[in-house]
Design a protein that fits this description.
This protein is an alpha/beta fold and 172 residues long. The chain has helices spanning 3-14, 17-27, 138-147, 156-168; strands at 30-31, 36-37, 49-51, 56-57, 62-63, 85-87, 92-93, 98-99, 103-105, 110-111, 116-117, 125-128, 133-137.
Length: 172
């Protein structure tokens, strides 16, 4: 692995969000505005990934822009298979999701943690599983999030106190 690639990996792992996005753009990923990206797994073809505005890509999400052609290499010396991945505006991709080639997600969609996205995700839907399937709408997800909402203060010590009281109150 070259020095340049090692530096890129360090920036992606330890850099600020501004540095992560700048590094990914330099690698060829097209990224919109107001995004949060917490993964470095963009494979060998990062220029085949497009991310819209206001997208959150959680930790350890993997983008796979190529197919599996190895078993055919003896018969077809130069056989290749590539595809693009596009995440449209206002989406969230859950922890450890895997997105395969030739997939478009959203807009206004959520991909659940550990999901394997093998086909397009309809706008305004929530998908989960392996393979990922529609499990609800973004409106239903919003209602679930509102029902679980906890008012969190700005001070970190107050956050701990509020959450411990909320979740462990019965143990006192």
């Amino acid at each position: 692995m070259g020095v340049r690639r090692i530096i890129q990996k360090l920036k992606l792992r330890y850099g600020s969000q501004t540095m992560v996005i700048r590094t990914l753009r330099a690698m060829g990923v097209r990224i919109g505005e107001r995004c949060r990206i917490y993964t470095s797994h963009f494979g060998a073809e990062p220029w085949l990934v497009r991310i819209g505005d206001h997208v959150c890509v959680s930790n350890d999400v993997t983008f796979v822009c190529h197919g599996l052609t190895w078993p055919f290499q003896d018969k077809h010396d130069s056989l290749t298979s590539f595809g693009t991945i596009e995440i449209r505006d206002n989406c969230q991709i859950g922890v450890r999701a895997t997105i395969l080639p030739n997939v478009t997600i959203g807009p206004n969609a959520v991909v659940g943690a550990c999901s394997v996205v093998t086909k397009d995700v309809p706008p305004g839907s929530v998908v989960a599983g392996n393979p990922a399937r529609v499990i609800g709408t973004i409106e239903e997800h919003e209602q679930k999030c509102l029902a679980r909402h906890i008012d969190i203060p700005d001070d970190p010590e107050d956050v701990r106190r509020v959450l411990e009281k909320h979740f462990w109150e019965d143990e006192a």
